[in-house]
Amino acid sequence: MFADFLRRLVEPGPAPLPDTDARLALTALLVRVARSDETYDAKERARIDRIVAARYGMSPLEAGRLREDAEALEGEAPDTVRFTRAIKDAVDYDHRIGVIEALWQVVLADGVREAEEDALLRLVANLLGVSDVDSALARQRAEKAL
């Protein structure tokens, strides 16, 4: 279903993504992080829906549809390293910082901060080219938002 989209995303020197594609890719990354601890529950899905609704000015129904599409994309997406690097090449820095903050919100949604999630967030921030300082500030903002 998403083969053409993924091929465009991971080809060498991808063009910046159109807004709708960037939303889908970034939401798929939220899903990937939520699934990283082998638990993907209603709290995490609801948190993703709230994040994308607020971030993109969507209704709850639209946000849920985007998340469902992102769940399917995430299942077909390449490994996290290639997927995240492709997003880095296609999305500007400020948006990537916002993505790290949103990822932290998802990680913290269940009230438990697992070592696997911390490790994945460090990897993702690095692959997205987000500095350690900006990542830490994003985490702090996410903690305050809860």
From TrEMBL:
Gene3D superfamilies: TerB-like
CDD domains membership: terB_like_2
All residue ranges annotated as the Co-chaperone DjlA N-terminal domain in the record: 23-140
InterPro entries, alphabetized: DjlA_N, TerB-like
Pfam families listed in its UniProt record: TerB
SUPFAM superfamilies, alphabetized: TerB-like
Protein name as catalogued: Co-chaperone DjlA N-terminal domain-containing protein
